[in-house]
TrEMBL record:
<dbReference type="GO" id="GO:0005737">
    <property type="term" value="C:cytoplasm"/>
</dbReference>
<keyword id="KW-0547">Nucleotide-binding</keyword>
<feature type="binding site">
    <location>
        <position position="276"/>
    </location>
    <ligand>
        <name>Zn(2+)</name>
    </ligand>
</feature>
<protein>
    <recommendedName>
        <fullName>Small ribosomal subunit biogenesis GTPase RsgA</fullName>
        <ecNumber>3.6.1.-</ecNumber>
    </recommendedName>
</protein>
<dbReference type="InterPro" id="IPR010914">
    <property type="entry name" value="RsgA_GTPase_dom"/>
</dbReference>
<feature type="domain" description="EngC GTPase">
    <location>
        <begin position="104"/>
        <end position="251"/>
    </location>
</feature>
<dbReference type="GO" id="GO:0042274">
    <property type="term" value="P:ribosomal small subunit biogenesis"/>
</dbReference>
<keyword id="KW-0378">Hydrolase</keyword>
<dbReference type="Pfam" id="PF03193">
    <property type="entry name" value="RsgA_GTPase"/>
</dbReference>
<comment type="subunit">
    <text>Monomer. Associates with 30S ribosomal subunit, binds 16S rRNA.</text>
</comment>
<dbReference type="GO" id="GO:0046872">
    <property type="term" value="F:metal ion binding"/>
</dbReference>
<dbReference type="InterPro" id="IPR004881">
    <property type="entry name" value="Ribosome_biogen_GTPase_RsgA"/>
</dbReference>
<dbReference type="InterPro" id="IPR030378">
    <property type="entry name" value="G_CP_dom"/>
</dbReference>
<feature type="binding site">
    <location>
        <position position="289"/>
    </location>
    <ligand>
        <name>Zn(2+)</name>
    </ligand>
</feature>
<dbReference type="GO" id="GO:0005525">
    <property type="term" value="F:GTP binding"/>
</dbReference>
<feature type="binding site">
    <location>
        <position position="283"/>
    </location>
    <ligand>
        <name>Zn(2+)</name>
    </ligand>
</feature>
<comment type="similarity">
    <text>Belongs to the TRAFAC class YlqF/YawG GTPase family. RsgA subfamily.</text>
</comment>
Length: 342
């Protein structure tokens, strides 16, 4: 069993479950990944940040927030040789379907959305699904409310559309009051990740929570789209004892999720579905559906869209061939019926 400074590691998010996993190892010094670069890392041991490299024998892809074990060589260079099994991880898939780890060992995801031109309820629901699929508690943070006249109306739309179990707060990232607003989620030992598009105030909010001075940028005139000032994920320490992971803006996100994860993010639909006349109701056109009419129509459309995405991602090549063949038959039947009516 390795020895480690519990008090120091608690400053970077050490919890009892992580401590138990560290205790399973008998070699190395513990640290947390603060940033990941192409061939190197930055680690934090609770006392300081320092550069490191992954050992050639390490067969793992590292992400910000990971707990690792390292050794020093004769030149005092840190080499990471072990990845401690993460409690959870935020993952997305690229255009080729390859899994990309974004962050690990996260307690809360701050889903940041501007009330200006960034306002997009469908994208917010996608982020919510990603957080739920990774066993991360979501908190909606609405920003830019001082820039538009209909901020209250838009904030009310968020509250009306999402389940009441999801906390929704409004904050001005550049003001000290934002730290007070988020205090319930920034206590000692907590790890947060900021998710949202560029220009919504993620880096500004990180500066407010940590007292750091990351570069921040404005938005382009005309579409309120942000300029990328954060180009890589990084971990920072908050004054209240929490850690926060800032991320670059993400406009598209193919989640690494399944149908259960979609249903968990749309649990209001799942609850109402229990009262549908048919147990296999798809909430499209079946009679006796308890969902249609009770759920916002656009939210229901987004639910179906995300279901199609995760089913397509999970389908094998043979499944896709069979699905295409099924639709060919259906289209042929539809054309035949149309011709018969002429």
């Amino acid at each position: 069993m390795i020895a480690f400074d519990i008090a120091a590691l608690r400053r970077i998010g050490l919890t009892n479950p992580i401590a138990a996993r560290l205790a399973l190892h008998d070699r190395g010094r513990p640290a947390r990944v603060a940033s990941v670069h192409r061939t190197s890392l930055v680690l934090h041991d609770g006392l300081r940040e320092f550069p490191a490299r992954p050992h050639p024998s390490l067969d793992a892809s590292l992400a910000v927030g990971d707990w690792v074990l390292f050794d020093l060589n004769e030149q005092d260079e840190a080499w990471v040789h072990t990845l401690v099994d993460p409690l959870n991880e935020l993952v997305r898939r690229d255009a080729h379907g390859t899994r990309q780890r974004l962050a690990a060992n996260v307690d809360t995801a701050l889903l940041v959305m501007g009330l200006d031109g960034d306002f997009n309820l469908r994208r917010l629901e996608r982020y919510l699904m990603v957080a739920r699929s990774c066993d991360v508690a979501p908190v909606i943070v609405l920003t830019k409310g001082d820039l538009v006249p209909d901020a209250d109306t838009k904030a009310a739309q968020v509250g009306a559309r999402l389940p009441a179990t999801v906390p929704v707060v409004r904050a001005h990232p550049q003001e000290a009051g934002a730290a007070d607003t988020l205090a319930p989620w920034t206590g000692e030992g907590q790890t947060l990740v900021l998710l949202g598009t560029s220009g919504v105030g993620k880096s500004t909010l990180t500066n407010t929570l940590t007292g750091a001075q990351q570069q921040t940028g404005g938005v382009r005139k005309g579409d309120d789209r942000g300029r990328h000032t954060t180009t890589s994920r990084s971990l920072h320490l908050c004054a209240g004892g929490a850690c926060v992971i800032d991320t670059p803006g993400l406009r598209s996100w193919q989640p690494d999720a399944d149908e259960d994860d979609v249903n968990a993010a749309f649990d209001d639909i799942e609850t109402l579905a229990a009262h549908c006349r048919f147990h296999d109701c798809t909430h499209v056109e079946e009679p006796g559906c308890a969902v249609r009419g009770a759920v916002d129509a656009d939210r229901l459309r987004n639910y179906h869209k995300l279901l199609r995405e995760v089913r397509h991602a999970a389908a094998t090549p043979l499944d896709r061939i069979a699905e295409r063949a099924r639709w060919k038959v259906l289209n042929k039947m539809a054309r035949a019926r149309a011709q018969a009516k002429r």
